[in-house]
């Protein structure tokens, strides 16, 4: 099925199941510990040996020699895999560095060996016996230093120019020119990267934790140098990904190579201290934002530049993209520059581009409002646009940023905010409020599914879609139940297996809308097949309460499968509606913080997100997505920072003791409001993404609240107390 014209009324609009706050159908499996995560697939792949990954101890250079003799002779050891023993390997399309390094080393903790043994402890112990002689080379590890040598990225990331930015900016009566930095960040998901691999002849099955089953299948095949149909990927449950599991990583490749060498199933999990340098991370940015406005607050010029680094052949962090679409203004420019750094590979992390981009842009908007002596909400509303500001003939499919800001202002009690920084106190706490806009594009992706009706009236949905903790199982079940007119307990959902039809996968907040649209397409076909079997006119038949009816005649759905299961398969693909209309999701984040006037400690006191993101398929799961993203935004604002060792080229704080993320005690009560919206341009589901929207803008709202509380403007994330305390002296005196 191809989606080429705006959606009209369809069975989803009944909203008997879709759109209702629904508990996760996979909840009991998870709360009882019986959902098999990758490392626990012991039933599917019994008697697996254990693999232990060894990471490179240098950031750049080569392995001169690697002596595996002692490790091979150690108790219980079954095999040692190195680049030398593995033979020729290809490289996946999605990786910048090789997953198995050697002899050349491209980054610190790049995998250089897998030791396979009967037990985990034996593998770990033997791994210490590897004798590796390195020849280290100097590398570039400092973005600020490499910045001057940064170049325009090669593929598809051009500078944008509209009108005359330089002239308009120079002539603007009110101007801001400010630079901001965001640090390298790590996904730090709960479940480490983990895989079990087993060969059957020339075919390998890998039970893994991967967001994008089909990408993983293709890249693993390319890396192993085998045809794609010789690889099966199984990834039914994933303990968080945030972009860190979009691609096949070292543990999956090494499990496959280890299983081949040991001739039995092998399981490999990355240890926590390996994850930070071995896998991908969100690259640090240096961003410069310039805004020029007339005295009435209308933006006349807006410019955003971003510098980031990556390994040779890598990609920039696309931190300027939202600035092309978020605010009006006739004169505009954006540019990205990419420096070669020899740090571990940079790549997508929740809302890549927008998350760090809005961390800068939305402080800049606050600073500009301050200069204009305008309320920051009023300033944003004044500069709203209904069309793509670079291509005014191209409207947004839906754009309710103003509604988000206004609704949030009322619900959060914005009126109580003191425009003057440092004006509100609660004992020793300086109290402030901040706001930021949220913006994230809505991407639509081709997605297929297979649905089956059996003689018990049960609908089984199969698609290689993944559930990374987001609630995919549940919204897919809701979609099938709505389409076939059955209750949720009559639907079985099977996900995350490359034997199933290829889905959109989980990434870029496209999964919810795109994967359910694929299920919708398959269900349309199943309805046709069922109507045909039961002798109904498909266009007239009603599917409800487990019955199929037309006029006076009503037959149980299950009757269609009396002589055998009825199966249908289809996909949803897209025409050019996403080109004619800009599809984006919008929101507004409101935060109240307290800053300790003596120590500079920041505590978030209240948070509210208002989101306009199309139809919300499951308000309960969507709320969970948004509060999780808000929590991640608190981490970005106040804590998260991979600290670069600029001499040796690695992230120093590579565990959860040193890489701090928020814990429950850091997070106050959070409110989420979804505006009632449907977007007929997105798909027949009329839904859009929301899982990434929730993080976009949060960190800036917090930084803005800290400014409002203290009068100290921090432009270098994270906003830690050392950056505040020097500016608080006056406040402490005032208290005394
Ligand atoms: Mo997302 S960062 O595309 O998983």
Automatic annotation (TrEMBL):
It comes from the Bacteria. GO terms for molecular function: iron ion binding; oxidoreductase activity. It comes from Janthinobacterium violaceinigrum. Gene3D superfamilies: Aldehyde oxidase/xanthine dehydrogenase, a/b hammerhead (3.90.1170.50), Aldehyde oxidase/xanthine dehydrogenase, molybdopterin binding domain (3.30.365.10). InterPro entries: Ald_Oxase/Xan_DH_a/b, Ald_Oxase/Xan_DH_a/b_sf, Ald_Oxase/xanthine_DH-like, AldOxase/xan_DH_MoCoBD1, AldOxase/xan_DH_MoCoBD2, AldOxase/xan_DH_Mopterin-bd_sf, PaoC-like. Pfam families: Ald_Xan_dh_C, MoCoBD_1, MoCoBD_2. Residues 32-138 form the Aldehyde oxidase/xanthine dehydrogenase a/b hammerhead domain. SUPFAM superfamilies: CO dehydrogenase molybdoprotein N-domain-like (SSF54665), Molybdenum cofactor-binding domain (SSF56003). SMART domains: Ald_Xan_dh_C (SM01008). This is Molybdopterin-dependent oxidoreductase.
């Amino acid at each position: 099925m191809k989606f080429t014209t705006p959606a009209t009324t369809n069975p989803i609009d009944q909203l008997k199941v879709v759109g209702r706050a629904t508990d996760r159908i996979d909840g009991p499996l998870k709360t009882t510990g019986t959902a098999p995560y990758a490392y626990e697939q012991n039933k599917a792949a019994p008697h697996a040996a254990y693999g232990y990954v060894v990471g490179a101890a240098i950031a750049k250079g080569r392995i001169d020699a690697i002596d595996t003799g002692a490790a091979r002779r150690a108790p219980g050891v079954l095999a040692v895999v190195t680049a030398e023993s593995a033979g020729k390997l290809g490289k996946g399309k999605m990786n910048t560095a090789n997953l198995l390094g050697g002899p050349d080393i491209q980054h610190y903790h790049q995998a250089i060996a897998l030791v396979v043994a009967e037990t985990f402890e034996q593998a770990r112990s033997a791994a210490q016996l590897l004798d590796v002689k390195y020849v280290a080379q100097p590398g570039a590890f400092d973005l600020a230093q490499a910045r001057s040598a940064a170049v325009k990225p090669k593929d598809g990331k051009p500078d944008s120019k509209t009108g005359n930015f330089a002239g308009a900016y120079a002539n603007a009566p009110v101007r801001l020119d400010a630079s901001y930095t965001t640090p390298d960040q790590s996904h730090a998901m709960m479940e480490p990267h983990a895989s079990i691999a087993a060969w059957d002849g020339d075919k390998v099955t890998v039970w893994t934790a991967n967001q994008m089953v089909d990408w993983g299948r293709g890249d693993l095949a390319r890396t192993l140098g085998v045809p794609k149909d010789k690889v099966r990927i199984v990834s039914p449950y994933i303990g968080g990904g945030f972009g860190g599991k979009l691609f096949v990583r070292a543990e999956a490749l090494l499990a496959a190579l280890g299983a081949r060498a040991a001739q039995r199933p092998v399981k490999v999990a990355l240890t926590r201290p390996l994850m930070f340098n071995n896998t991908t991370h969100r690259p640090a940015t240096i961003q410069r934002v310039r805004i020029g406005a007339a005295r009435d607050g209308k933006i006349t010029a807006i410019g955003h530049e971003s510098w980031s680094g990556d390994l040779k052949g890598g990609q920039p962090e696309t931190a300027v993209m939202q600035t092309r679409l978020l605010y009006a203004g006739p004169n505009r420019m954006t540019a990205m520059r990419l420096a070669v750094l020899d740090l571990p590979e940079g790549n997508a992390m929740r809302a890549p581009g927008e998350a760090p981009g809005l961390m800068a842009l939305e402080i800049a908007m606050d600073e500009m409002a301050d200069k204009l002596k305008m309320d920051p909400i009023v300033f944003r509303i004044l500069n709203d646009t209904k069309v793509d500001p670079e291509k005014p003939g191209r409207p947004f499919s839906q754009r309710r940023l103003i509604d988000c800001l206004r609704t949030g202002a009322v619900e959060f009690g914005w009126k109580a905010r003191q425009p003057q920084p440092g004006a509100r106190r609660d004992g020793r706490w300086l109290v402030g409020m901040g706001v930021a806009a949220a913006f994230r594009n809505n991407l639509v992706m081709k997605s297929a599914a297979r649905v089956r009706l059996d003689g018990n009236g049960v609908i089984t949905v199969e698609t290689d879609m993944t559930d990374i903790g987001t609630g995919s199982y549940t919204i897919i079940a809701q979609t099938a139940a709505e389409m076939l007119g059955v209750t949720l307990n009559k639907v079985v959902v099977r996900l995350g297996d490359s034997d199933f039809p290829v889905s959109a996968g989980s990434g870029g907040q496209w999964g919810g809308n795109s994967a359910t649209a694929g299920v919708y397409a398959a269900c349309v076909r199943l309805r046709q097949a069922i109507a045909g079997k039961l002798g109904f006119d498909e266009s007239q038949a009603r599917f409800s309460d487990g019955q199929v009816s037309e006029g006076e005649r009503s037959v149980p759905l299950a009757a269609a499968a009396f002589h055998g299961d009825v199966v249908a398969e289809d996909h949803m693909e897209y025409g050019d509606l996403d080109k004619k209309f800009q599809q984006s999701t919008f929101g507004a984040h409101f935060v109240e913080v307290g800053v300790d006037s003596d120590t500079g400690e920041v505590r978030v006191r209240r948070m509210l997100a208002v989101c306009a993101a199309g139809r919300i398929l499951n308000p309960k799961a969507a709320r969970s997505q948004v509060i999780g993203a808000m929590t991640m935004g608190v981490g970005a604002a106040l804590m998260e920072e991979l600290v670069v060792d600029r001499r040796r080229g690695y992230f120093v704080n590579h565990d959860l003791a040193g890489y701090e993320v928020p814990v429950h005690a850091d997070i106050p009560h959070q409110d989420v409001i979804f505006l009632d919206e449907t977007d007929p341009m997105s798909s027949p589901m009329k839904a859009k993404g929301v899982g990434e929207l929730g993080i976009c803008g949060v960190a800036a709202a917090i930084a803005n609240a800290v400014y409002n509380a203290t009068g100290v403007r921090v432009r270098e994330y994270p906003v830690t107390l050392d950056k505040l305390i020097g500016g608080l002296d006056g406040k402490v005196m005032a208290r005394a």
